[in-house]
């Protein structure tokens, strides 16, 4: 090329030949098949070598685009993937993650993460792209929930065009890998064998297809045959030639094109038969038997497994090593493509059905093999033990478990066995009986198995896994096993809500609250955690409350089951409606409305949900949970009803008439006149009648004509009207008086009336004994009527006899709504305590109770007190007056004392555990001997207290209206002296620590100090000049030199010897009015003073008169004392540390929550705590608005409102 001449152009490449669509038909299926495991360049070379088909890379890509086949994910598809993934992760965090497929290929998580980084998408924010991110064509794009085996780690692999098919893909660091099949070799071998396409079982196909071909490294049963093929191609080639000679279709050598991949079921069955025959072709004797047995053991077992597994799991099930399984698969693999066969439903049926032509020696006894797998699973589970992950702390949460520890302690084989051992028993049609392997396992490892399932996050499935076992019981031979299974089902229902989050509560709370009659408690008492030194006596039967639903922030106003009982809707005053899945009791959806929710109602076909909130009625589609329709009202909607056929609805506004409208159009059909301010309306089950009540008369209307056909007159307040499902009965509630002093106490004449719609007469009048009902519902068979009451109870009544069948207790707030499930097996109740409880309605558990004393009467709102030596516990009711003395060690009731008056306001032991003082009414005290249960003395005087000496030898009793004081010797009952000279009645008394002095506080505000030994008045102190100022009990210092007194306006410290007031303490700033000091206590060193005001304890510096700290408690405090070091105070709720070293800058900083040392009860009453650690979960049945709690050292006594008292002897906490 000369200077100045333009450079010569390179020769143009020859133009590629034009390819029409028909030219691709022959090679198209093989291109698609090869692309699954190879790069595009490798596919082009292989197609050119085998078929002589020549095309450029660009032509290949154009063809793939036309066929809508490609490995690259478009931007639109990736946006849709990110949007769905972010919604699942942020809006539904309790669900497992999603996996995505685009054109049949799984999209790797690393690709999604890379796209999010490139686009700057935040992982913690919902992704809301433009409309271009709508979900692509469903034929090319799909997403599904990842299998549980893959939920913990991302094991999805993907191959791009620039990655060779034989490239080794490194697994994530946290994953445990097993021997895997080389993908390239597997692809060649599969293509060479050319197995016909299989039709998979829907369940197994879902399990396998959710993982895909590219996840063989994680779950595929693999073999070392790939290594053998790479090392010895000659041997592999010879085996293929043998297959060709045996007539296996498609096995015509490595370089011959395979047959077309389509075949009928008959052709596939014939192919399977030839494959099995070729496996033992030319084999005789022991070698033939060995091959058949290995086939039965390995391939037979794999085809029966419930989910994809790893090679180590198969090895564990066969009780051999992974190497041995690999060797067996290596011997079988030349004739069988394991990956294609194990998910094939037709192949599995072929093996187990002799009528399909399977060779007799290969026939698989499916039931026998299922039983063998179940037996091996039980052997694996027998290795389980208590606290298998070494959590140690009974309050450890499941989410705190180390994943690596969980992988080591619960390997895949044990996980599989936990989930599927009962499945294999059922599929094997096994019969279980007393003393067999299943019964023995349950007796030894039932709790261990439950713990493992909880650790694996499968707690919600425990009942579904366990219940089929009942179907396998052999009648007549399984009395003990039948009882155990029934007990176990109740045990699971009773504790599932806590063990799901705190697995180790299986060995403490779950066993404690299952009742002494439970076989679970008897069998596993030795498994109780060491924190429980002794199991408390819990004599009550199983708690029928199977679940407590928490989530609403305010009172629950309405509950409703869907007709299929799959959903439960709960409405609340927090302006939300929650939708619960009754299979798992998880909240599926939260609907936000515009006002306080009054009513929620499902339609009969469960297709929509009606929500009534103040002036609005909204209709929500249950398929999409979107608001479909909304009706507004000018005033509050007082009542609402939906007809059973879902065509009509009736409502009434405040002080308005009742309107009947069409649901679909909202058209007004009828206006029912003659009523005003209706409180309740209800349709009959056949939708032909409507009943209403306006606080008085009951009216029955014809829905078609709108005419009133009957009026039932009433002079009482009527409400909560309800039809039975057969429309033969109408029930409502009548209250005698709504203006009584205590609205919630009810009246003896309050009742539930049941009207017979056929005979036109009253069928029953039920009087619930002052348990004021607020809501009614009939069971589906109309035989049971359930009522919710203001005393926090739910009652079941026999509709025909009016007899009370059952009383459910457990709510701590007033009831407002109840609802039966469609099959009447569950009852849901909503309460003002912000919870919803689900009750298991079992007729065999009914306890006939013609009269029941509930919250307003009987043993409710109890008191409990521990003796100083913690050997005895006393409990009493605020209203029934009964007192019980318990042995704190054994939990046995030693004495039951009934007082003259049906109330007890206060109880306390003296320093001696043999004397108990009980205040039955203000100014009336009974002194009881705890051993004999006899009353030693009764003191009757208004505003009077009694006082024991510290050694319990002396008792000071004021004499009514005399101004004198009697000193009694407790042991002999002798009157030692009578002290006179008080001008007014004595209100309070206190004996000094050394029993030398006694202080008497008169109603006029004067304190007289007497010398007991000499019987003379030593000092007279003017505490308060106001005649109407109420005085509290005084307190001596340990050295009897100081005296503390308190009235409504101040606390004063006195020097006893001189009678001088040393210090005056005024109420802290937060007391806007007068305070009410219940008791005073001076520390041992006479430097600190503690004043008790109901639930508040103030700590004062005696020298300066400053309030150093204010401790605010959650429960009633009636006992306060300092420890010898003055670093702790002892209360009936536990030991509280005093941290007075911190300086307080503001007055608010003085108010602190108590910092307990040792055992105490959490503020929500749900946990017995030790320091900051959760120790024992308290069942909701034992939680009340006013709970009796007494804690001293390692003894915890809790009284919940019934006659029983829980007494826990816990491990020694080591606190002074």
Automatic annotation (TrEMBL):
InterPro entries: Clr5_dom (IPR025676), WD40/YVTN_repeat-like_dom_sf (IPR015943), WD40_PAC1 (IPR020472), WD40_repeat_CS (IPR019775), WD40_repeat_dom_sf (IPR036322), WD40_rpt (IPR001680). WD repeats lie at residues 549-590, 766-807, 808-842. Residues 22-71 form the Clr5 domain. Keywords: Repeat, WD repeat. SMART domains: WD40. It comes from the Eukaryota. Transmembrane segments: none annotated. This is Clr5 domain-containing protein. It comes from Metarhizium anisopliae BRIP 53293.
